[in-house]
């Protein structure tokens, strides 16, 4: 795949305070433009910055542009959903010197669809292109080689990139049944082009984003994970075993702050349009 000017600038040209962003994700390692650094940055990001929907659930408008996502992630210490997390992380990688594409994707967890509802990243290294995603819940915790067939170790599970006539499908392998995750084409898009998808998902209250408030992140670089799913605190151990703890009434906000750094002026999961998120 030839790297066009559009590809080279897909996540570039945005002012990013690299030192502040790295401090936010607790990363003080080398910054070579290579796979080892890319994986270390990805795992640090997925540990420090939660995948969460508190704004969307509460009806607080969010945007795809880095003028929104970078201050939210870096300055306010928040997480977000795919458009925010991969948007901001792509900008960081571009500022460091990685060549990054923003890619539109269609989530297929409920069945085949071509409706764009996800943002993921392609990062081009000297040894080839990689799929990188810090905004897909319990998705791959390390880069996946886009030019490789067969299973790849994605830290939290094995994954496979299955090529079709029109798109590539990310498939999770855990147990006996392969589970398709999302489909994408290797065509660079802008964050502005994804704004309509973001607005549509915010407005559609039948989607999972509006079913319950949640937050989830890796623990110590993974593969362990901690998640707040409505009123349940779930700890997933490195071996995959799960322990659920009910969150007591009026303790929800304290749990959200303690484990995910998100401060809300509430004692229980927010009602839409009736919360103050800090």
What do you see in this structure?
With about 280 residues, this protein is of the alpha+beta class. It has a domain of about 150 residues: Arylamine N-acetyltransferase fold (2-Layer Sandwich), CATH 3.30.2140.20. About 25% of the residues lie in helices and about 25% in strands. The protein has eight helices and 13 strands. An eight-stranded antiparallel sheet has the order 5-4-3-2-9-8-7-6. A hairpin with a 6-residue loop joins β10 and β11. α5 crosses α6. The longest helix is centred in the first third of the chain and has 15 residues. The N and C termini lie far apart (about 45 Å).
Mean pLDDT: 91
Specify the overall morphology.
globular
Strand content: 25-35%
CATH level-1 class of the domain at 5-143 and 186-196: Alpha Beta
Proportion of residues in helical segments: 25-40%
Strand order of the largest sheet: 5-4-3-2-9-8-7-6
| Strands, count | 13
N→C terminal distance: 43 Å
Largest sheet: 8 strands, antiparallel
Q: How many H/I helices? A: 8
- Rg, rounded, reads 18 Å
CATH domain topology of the domain at 5-143 and 186-196 = Arylamine N-acetyltransferase fold
Gross CATH architecture of the domain at 5-143 and 186-196: 2-Layer Sandwich
Order of secondary-structure elements: HHHEHHHEEEEEEEEHEEEEH
Pick out the low-confidence regions: 1-9
Structure class = alpha+beta
